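Let's sit down with a protein and look at its sequence and fold side by side. Which protein we use is up to you, so please pick one and set it down. Label the sequence line and the structure token line clearly, so we can match residues to local backbone shapes. Go ahead whenever you are ready, and we will take it from there:

***
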Amino acid sequence: MKKIITALLLTLAIFVTGCSANELISVTDSGSLSDEPIASSESAPTESITQSEPTEEDNMKTLVVFFSCTNTTKTLAEYAADILNTDIYEIVPAEPYTESDLAYYTNGRADREQNDPSVRPAISGDVDNMSDYDTIILGYPIWHGQAPRIISTFLESYDFSGKTIIPFCTSHSSGIGSSADNLHSLCSADWENGKRFDSITSRDDIKEWLQQFKLEPVHIKIASKIIAIEI
């Protein structure tokens, strides 16, 4: 009987010692230790990444869209995208506008297009993932008191149902006027009141304007880490 008890005790001692030598515990980013062991392993320390499920708010995204021939609108659109840390898309005409095309009151291309509301200049490329965006910040110059007809092409190319469009225009003198209202009639989005900016508009001016819409900058979420170490 004594030999049997001794053998059992020896086996138990070896078992307990083995578990203690190979037990794994978890360490969180905060440096605290978890008292719940992770499965034993003889291998080198391992690392795994866990990430919380995205919420509806996390999924909301903003896209800055602009059309620009002189880089005035482009500069302000880039300010907005940088401030909000969001995506940006340039409306590029399939047939680029030349300097003579843009010369006012010469019956050039831009003049003819603006005189015909039915004109829809073709766009080179498109937004593949438009459904991912909830808010569109739309920038364009004013041509003869209205948005260039290529903006109409853009708005008629996608389904904006349930989205919000925030327009802004650039002009030396003309205000945004009826241009936004006329564009609004081309799609089913909710429209915010637009604003006109000039060529000397600063980044701070754009930032101040955007604050009223309560669009939060996109922050990159760092997944929490659980590191398994061997002790």
About this structure: The radius of gyration is 30 Å. Residues 2-52, 219-231 have pLDDT under 50 and may be disordered.
